[in-house]
Amino acid sequence: MIISPCISICKTDPLTGFCYGCGRTNQEKKIWKDETTNDEWKMENINNIRKRLKGWQLESFEESYKYKIKNGISLFKKNQLK
To answer: Cβ contacts of residue 75 below 8 Å, gap of 6+?
Structure first.
């Protein structure tokens, strides 16, 4: 099972259409929720996200996504629980 790249920072850039947190489009978010979406598509989407994000945004995504994979919760949600 591939973990969703959502890192709980759900705001869309009005110019690019990409989420500030995970770098996905609204359409990509819908595809992730579809039960018939296969792991190959999901891995390709994560690779595309990594190509879209740059600098601090990519670093922040990578850190939070790795934490989410390991702990089941994004860093943002973890910090909200404090």
So the answer is: 7, 63, 64, 67, 68
Q: Give the type of residue at 10.
A: C
Query: Each residue of 42-73: pLDDT tens digit?
Result: 999 999 999 999 999 999 999 999 999 999 99
pTM: 0.90
**Using CA atoms, how far apart are residues 45 and 41, in angstroms rounded to an integer?**
6
Contacts of 18 (CB under 8 A, 6+ apart): 12, 24, 25, 52
Residues 6+ apart with CB under 8 A from 42: 2, 32
Which has the minimum average pLDDT: 11-15, 37-41, 62-66, 75-79? 75-79
